[in-house]
Amino acid sequence: MRYLLLGATGDLARKKILPALARLATADTELEVVASSRRPWGDAEYGAFVRPALVAAGVAEPDAFLARVRYAPADHTEPASLKALAREVAPQSLIHLSIQPSAYAPIIEALGETGALGHEGVKLLIEKPFGRDEASARALDALITRYLPEERLYRIDHYLGKESVRALEGALAGEALTGVSVTLAETLDAQGRGAFYDETGVIRDVVQNHALEVLAASLAEGAGPEARLAALEKLSLAGPLETGVRLGQYQGYRETPGVAPDSKTPTAVELALSYASAAGPIPVTIYAGKALAEARQELVAETPPGPRAFSLAGDHAYDRLIREAAEGDRTHFPSLAEVLAAWQLLDPVLAPPTPSLAIYEPGSDF
Asked: Looking at 76, 96, 210, 316, which residue is catalytic?
């Protein structure tokens, strides 16, 4: 199998995807990795760039893995370069888009027009966020399915690969809940990902996908896309935006390279939702953001005996998800219906005029 990784010099590729591929390669002697990005490097330069990240991730024999990685530079904005990249697509390939979301459509169209996506053995893995809102998600899906069918499209939410999240599947169904909260708080700031983050923001980065998928998986009656969708459809905004949504941006964010000097992108959010259970509405809170006081990833279920906290911290989820995609197991990949349900819930929060933006000090509680 050939794994074609676009965006191969990005943080996600270096810190998560490539270490996962290295671990998979120990058991899969047929795995071949083709890494692509704009940098005009050769194999040796690329290997030197990613090797420290492999070592930091605990990869036992990084050089043995790198011997199976070939670097194919490509400017994803140049049609001629993309045609050359399309020739790297083998009849049995996983193509992973780990790039700016705004580049998904032109790259997919360019690859599709060459016929590279037409092979039955080609699958497309695409990172969140899938679209910027419901309308763009529908448009992106319509574009993709011009060239390959839904069953060969895998929308990745790596939280659904985590063992800690899978252990929560259906865990709250039927519970006498008085409240549920999900916290995805980071002490890190946007760091070197300013351009990506300013295009995305906290709601598109972790709420529309990670936070809502965790809620859906834990409240669902069963596992899989249909069960999660049924739970998502029971969530609604709790009251008017003025009282149910708080948005923040940490002081100094606008000085980050790649960030607009007048950026209105939120880096933190507190969102009040309601879940329509059979016993009545249950208040739900999502708290997420960057440069906050404490790093915390957890779900807390409020019950009459008292709160129960579930850690969402994690294992190497990409190993599992890549293997499942290769095997055709779609259980832990969001369906289009799930993605649209999440956007339908959050589009009112993202639509102008958005709630006012509070400025908070890095390292503080928003």
From this structure: 210
